[in-house]
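re: the backbone from monday

yeah here it is again, tokenized this time
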């Protein structure tokens, strides 16, 4: 069927008609940025931009040339349209000010231009993640305007640059997947109204950090690894791609639980993943698809940010498993997961030695 399929533009215009029609135009600019990044990533080593940019980004991580170019793609495609009061990026320490020769609007675009970029040199799927907020007044956005809890997001999405390039989007009316038709250059609606199965037998975590995890996470993962010989009574499968976009995409397609928990490897860091442009957009997409997204001790979308590049623990995916792991955190915090030991037998023996 060549014609009549729903394109991203048609979907966005229909879904944002009225109050947020300007946001629709912004989403079409984001899609244009994503197409440019897809073309660049798809060239691989032929792009001539593999390797390090010989710089360290605000995260203290080595910046790759392709990180810089992906960031440029978002800024150049989105700065001119008149919908934005400002932008914030994983690659920029401070918010990006819309140049004064462009009109400003009331939306805020927050993004990780190339997530999983350490995988780009080894040809593993990477992605871009974005989130849209709004402010009540026009004019240049200041840092506090971005520090809004995730439940205030108006839209969220990611692009995954895999064998196919897909854009997965929510504007608050479910989570929907679009596949890039390279011949026409259109994103075509291929996965309407995605639903995450409530139950799963597949977990994703970097188990090399196991010794640093908190006990409830060690308990949960230990039960998954014990499989049918343990209390869960069923075998589990494990995945770890080290590209959050690819993990979340797999979970949206077939269920699963993704964990990047707090670990004490670096006690100064409450987690690896960033709240504003990784956890919040992914949490909105997952919840809109019927899943759950938690820090282990609370809903991610209710966390009030206090810094632009704030990190936090991330547990998301099939609702039953996320809720089980939240229960394990609660039992740990209240001591309910440890057998009650009577004071008579706690520290001292009845028989003095
Ligand atoms: P990079 O963007 O530096 O490759 O990090 C990717 C990421 O933020 C996220 O996409 C992965 O889930 C996670 O880090 C992988 O972390 P580990 O390398 O510690 O497994």
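seq for it, each position gets an aa:
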């Amino acid at each position: 069927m060549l014609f009549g399929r729903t394109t991203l533009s048609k979907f966005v215009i229909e879904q944002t008609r009225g109050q947020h029609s300007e946001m629709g135009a912004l989403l079409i600019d984001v899609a244009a940025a994503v197409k440019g990044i897809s073309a660049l990533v798809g060239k691989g080593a032929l792009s001539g931009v593999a390797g390090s940019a010989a710089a360290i980004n605000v995260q203290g991580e080595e910046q790759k040339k392709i990180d810089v170019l992906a960031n440029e793609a978002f800024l150049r495609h989105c700065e001119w349209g008149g919908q934005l009061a400002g932008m914030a990026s994983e690659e920029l320490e401070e918010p990006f000010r819309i140049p004064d020769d462009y009109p400003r609007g009331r939306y805020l675009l927050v993004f990780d231009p190339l997530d999983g970029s350490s995988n780009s040199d080894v040809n593993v799927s990477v992605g871009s993640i974005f989130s849209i907020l709004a402010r009540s007044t026009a004019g240049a956005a200041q840092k506090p305007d971005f520090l809004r809890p995730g439940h205030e997001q108006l839209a969220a999405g990611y692009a995954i640059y895999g064998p196919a390039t897909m854009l997965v989007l929510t504007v608050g009316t479910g989570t929907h997947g679009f596949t890039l038709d390279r011949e026409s250059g259109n994103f075509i609606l291929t996965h309407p109204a995605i639903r995450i199965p409530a139950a799963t037998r597949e977990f994703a975590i970097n188990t090399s950090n196991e010794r640093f995890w908190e006990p409830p996470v060690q308990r949960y993962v230990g039960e998954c690894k014990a499989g049918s010989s343990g209390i869960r009574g069923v075998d589990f499968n494990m995945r770890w791609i080290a590209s959050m976009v690819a993990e979340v995409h797999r979970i949206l397609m077939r269920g699963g639980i993704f964990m990047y928990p707090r670990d004490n490897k670096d006690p100064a860091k409450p987690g690896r993943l960033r709240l504003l442009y990784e956890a919040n957009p992914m949490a909105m997409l997952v919840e809109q698809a019927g899943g759950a997204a938690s820090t282990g001790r609370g809903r991610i979308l209710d966390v009030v940010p206090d810094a632009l590049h704030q990190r936090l623990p991330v547990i998301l995916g099939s609702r039953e498993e996320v809720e089980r792991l939240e229960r394990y955190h609660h039992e740990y915090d209240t001591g309910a997961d440890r057998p009650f030991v009577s004071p008579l037998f706690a520290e001292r023996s009845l028989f003095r030695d």
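Residues 30 and 207 are 34 Å apart (CA to CA). The chain has a mean pLDDT of 94.
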